[in-house]
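ARCHIVE CARD
Drawer: 12
Card no.: 0347
Subject: one protein chain, sequence and derived structure
Cross-reference: see card 0346
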Amino acid sequence: MPTIGEAFGGAGVGPPDVRVGRVGRVGRVGRVIGADERGRYAMATQATLSRPTGRMARSVPAARHLLIEVAVVAAVFLAYRQIRLLTADQLRDAHANAVRIIDLERSLHIFSEGAVQDLVSRSHTLVLFLNRYYVTVHFPATTLFLVWLYVRHRAHYRRIRRWFVAVTALALAVHIAFPLAPPRLVPGIDLVDTLQRFGPQIYSADTTASAANQLAAMPSLHVGWAFMVAASFVMVKRTRASLWLLAHPAITLLAVVATANHYWLDAACAVVLAALVWLAAGSLLGRPGNRDVEGGAEGRADADVRACVGADVGAASGQDPRSEPSRAGRSARSPS
């Protein structure tokens, strides 16, 4: 990598004297840049010459960010698997907690899960649609949303990903402290396991042998993640058309209730938890910005070079660069 001196024609030689004439006044010679401005110009140019450029400069941080995201997802998945092992044999406690939730919903006059299932069961097509929506949309939709956010809206990605991780971690903690059997596993309330009856069958009849944690009804991560996907999309896009994605949590809510996998309170707690984390931990989650956008340091170095040249052009045209920045200086400092 050449030094500054070599870049300008010889070892130890700084940038040549730059004389700038007034615009439109041929023959008028501007001033010679001073020693301080030489130093700024030299340091900014050194940063420009020494940084990696092109595809290499973009690929290294991109690969590092991707590895971090894969590690975060893997850590959350492993935590979920371990928690399943911790609560798999707590069926008695889960049934006792289910009775408490049912009694609470009855006292609030909202224990209508059976009525919703009876209404949906009138259409075999609707039952199959909700079954498949419950099984196939939850993880893929959340994953595709986060990938889209990472690729297209990097400035918002880190804050929203932290939101997802924080809500999921708190939900897993509740799953440990409060195991809860879903309605389909509670005898005597006349709710049918539509997945077992109509398919697709994804849960084992033995809760201890299931790959999923069947005693983690409270809060509902199905509803929580669907709400967070829709809310994040609306916040990022800020268009009327983006409001259509609110149909995703609405359909998810109907699916988890009609399939007898969750109570109304499971869904309500998930939404409240997500909202509280967003409001209470806003400073910890971070603010949208360009920290995740590549090229931030490079842009600052280029801005220093343009600012030096812009200030010199302003001085040569009779302007004080400290009081009235030149056009080049303003464009270097303006946000992109």
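Annotation on reverse: The chain is about 65% helix and 0% strand. Residues 251 and 295 are 41 Å apart (CA to CA).
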